[in-house]
Amino acid sequence: MDETNGSKGNVKTAAPKTDGNGNGARTILGVTVDPDAIKQKAELDLKAARQPTKTDVYQSIFRVKHDETPRSRTLGVLSNVFLHLHPAKVNRDAVRFNFTWGMGGITFYLFWVLTWTGVLLMFYYHPTKVQAFRDILYLEHDVPFGKLLRNMHRWAAHAMVLTVQLHMFRVFLTGSYKKPRQFNWSIGVILLVLTLLLSFTGYLLPDDQLGFWAVTVGTNMARATPMLGHEGPFGPQFGMTNYNDVRFALLGGSIVDANALLRAYIWHCIAIPGFAATFMIVHFWRVRKDGGISGPAPMALEKEIKPLRRR
Amino acid sequence: MDWHQLWTIVSLPDNIPIVGMIFILPFFTWYGLRQAFANDRLIDRLEADPDLAKTHHRKVEPFQKGWARELHVWPYLLRMEFLAAVIVTVILMVWSIALDAPLEEPANPSLTMNPSKAPWYFLGLQEMLVYFDPWIAGVLMPTLIIIGLIVIPYIDENPLGNGYYTFRQRKFAIWTFIFGFIILWSTMIVIGTLIRGPGWMWFWPGMTWDHNRVIFEINRDLHEIVGITSQPWIGLFGGAVVGGFFAVSGYACHRLITATAFSRKILERMTLAQYVIMQALLIIMLSLPVKIAARLLFRVKYVWVTPWFNI
Ligand code: HEM
User: Fold this and answer.
1) Residue boundaries of the structural domains of chain A
2) DSSP SS3 for A33
């Protein structure tokens, strides 16, 4: 059977012929029952069950053969929605740990873990002054595995901030931001900022002293924004007060209170993850479009530098 | 030596990433540079031996004729990704079972936490608050860090070292990044987390966090030290000092940029705009350690006082 992407047109025509007047056939209440024909059909089903990969159901799900041939391995990656961001083949030295340190992939995996644990946490959390702190207590003491869930979300977030920096460090050390990957580095920087902001907005959500003061310290700096903060250089000249500057916009008020909690919640659970996911898609797309992972590339020598041509 | 205090700080669950960072960052710096040096040795051989350069596959990874240059993603890359995901999951699980995410008392605006610290990845910025006004430490510097990172690929005109580790071919770039990322950013995070105690005072590891400690240190503005007392002169003097700093460190950076014949060749490829932007970013980056030194050694508070802003 050849593997094509889609229908194969191989209609089974081997169905047993039953004419209703065969040897064992009998008619009960107007329905023809032929034991031989039923037996034959059962045998066909059995045969199919022994070769599940040949059934229509299997083929409708997997579309292509999964055997050891290069062609199938390629199709297995390219025709799978979750894997198709990969190329079919990669540089033989790039699969080693020592080139990429796996840090981009690990960062993405941690983002994935955070999304899952985060959604589960959302089932138990209300972003209100009355409930927020109690919800955390409830999670810690009553929800089955609630403590584990919260811990995992917390530690995965810390880990992600660390791995994203390591990823940037290795991209720098391998010079992978050089032509043609300049723009993807810039997208990466945006992802770095979004990662930090994600973590920061989450800090306030337990509504405890730690988060409250951390966010107070953090947003107090916004007061000092030149021109846009009421304590910043030229802020007063621009008409900024405690009630209309950027800090007010961030907190939804002049102090860290109920509105700030709600705003942090929306940024943390909807807006920033949305931006981050979008930029990640672009980031991965660009890794592919820029020719895949940059190396390990054959080294260039000083005397091979080509003169630069500018328009 | 207060071991108990040391242990309290180091074992705080939220501080684990920083304690980890103290080991992880040097490890990956070593790991990356080790490969860079290995590649550099090969580059040396190839530069010295043009015949070898023609036939060599130009990687330190082994390669023989007849080997495929590319491998199938399935299974060679996917199995690595799967393995990485499993290992990360196990680490997260163990971490989350062993250590609980912190939860303090409910938020209470009338009870100030001392010290009240931002999340760890912003502690570098919070540490900067000691040396600069909030509009610089909290707004200007972060903005410049982001812009600076984004423009790296657009000002680095060195075409060598694209896709492989090397130190020899990119000495200036690698030193700059290590200076900014490891020596400034990461060290300040470690200081902010492990060293700064109540009142954001400096406590060496093992010193007891004494909440009643008072440090009498009189910080003076530079113009006071020099003896200038009335306004237009104060501002003009400060402006001259800052301008002088830009000139001197610009000159120093220029000497570094043109230190070798190779870097002069790279400089020739840069446009004026690229050069100016690079200089501006380098000088501003240098202003941080310079201001730290001025504060710690000479107790200087501001170098430039004007009616609108102080630096
Ligand atoms: C949420 C954050 C990020 C995720 C999930 C992510 C993910 C990835 C992945 C999976 C790759 C493939 C290669 C690898 O694993 O190293 C990659 C490559 C790359 N990343 Fe990121 N990244 C992130 C942030 C960053 C940052 C902060 C930068 C730089 C400032 C960056 C710059 C790049 C570049 C230039 C490449 C191409 C590298 C090459 O071809 O060798 N990324 N990224």
Assistant:
1) 7-78, 96-293
2) strand
Query: What is the CATH topology of the domain spanning A96-293?
Result: Cytochrome Bc1 Complex; Chain C (1.20.810)
Establish if B192 touches chain A: CB-CB under 8 angstroms.
no
- Structure confidence at residue A161 (pLDDT): 96
Partner-chain contact A209 B101, CB within 8 Å: no
Ligand 1 atom closest to Cα of residue A287: 37
Verify cis geometry, omega within 30 degrees of 0, for the bond prior to A296: yes
- Distance from the B65 Cα atom to the nearest Cα atom in chain A, whole angstroms: 14
Locate B18 and state its tokens: 């920083």
Q: Cα–Cα distance between A167 and A75 in angstroms, integer?
A: 30
Cβ within 8 Å, pair A148-B165: no
Does ligand 1 come within 6 angstroms of the Cβ of A268? no
Angle between helices B78-98 and A103-122 (to 10 degrees): 50
pTM for the predicted model, two decimal places: 0.91
The answer to whether B117 and A211 are in contact (CB under 8 A) is no
Q: Give pLDDT tens digits for A124-148.
A: 999 999 999 999 999 999 999 999 9
Angle between helices B16-48 and A146-173 (to 10 degrees): 20
Backbone angles phi, psi at A208, to 5 degrees: -110, 180
Ligand 1 neighbourhood includes A282 CB (under 6 angstroms): no
Q: What is the DSSP code string of B10-71? A: HT-GGGHHHHHHHHHHHHHHHHHHHHHHHHHHHHHHHHH-HHHHHH----SS---TTS-SEE
